[in-house]
Amino acid sequence: MLKHKMFFTTFGCEIIAELKEGLEDAIVCSSHKIYGPQTTDLVLQLRKNGIDEVFVAGMSANLCVESHIRHLLECGFKVRAIKDATAGALLPIGDGYKSALVNFHFICSSVLTTAEFCKKTTSAKPLVKPHPKSFKKLIHKSRKKATQL
Fold this sequence. Notes:
By secondary structure, the protein is an alpha/beta fold. It has one domain: 3-Layer(aba) Sandwich (Rossmann fold), CATH 3.40.50. It is 42% helix and 19% strand. The protein is built from 6 helices and 7 strands; from the N terminus they run βαβαβαβββαβαα. The strands form 3 sheets. A 3-stranded parallel sheet has the order 3-4-7. The termini are far apart.
């Protein structure tokens, strides 16, 4: 079910220090141009590696993350979102994170926390040791910056 591979883009992506350990064998895909993966080789890389289930997390829940989820679902993948490893803009007109979570529950196979993801993947040795506290700290910082805009 879960292959132990991680996929990252090269452009505009910086992996925080706490997560870099174990990424030597990660597969790097071409970067996405707007929001979704349609202009990348992500689907090709997933299929070449026999992967049919994808766990998605990221910094822009209602834009990039949701676009990736929708495209991967339309391509036939089983997609699960990791909600506390995902963030969204908080603006006076609305909360991008909360609106994305509503959609995640409608369209994903499931919506997990990082703790649930870690339990699901502990039977096998993951490439990265997930740090839920690091994710939460990073998400808090990004949401705090968004409220200052």
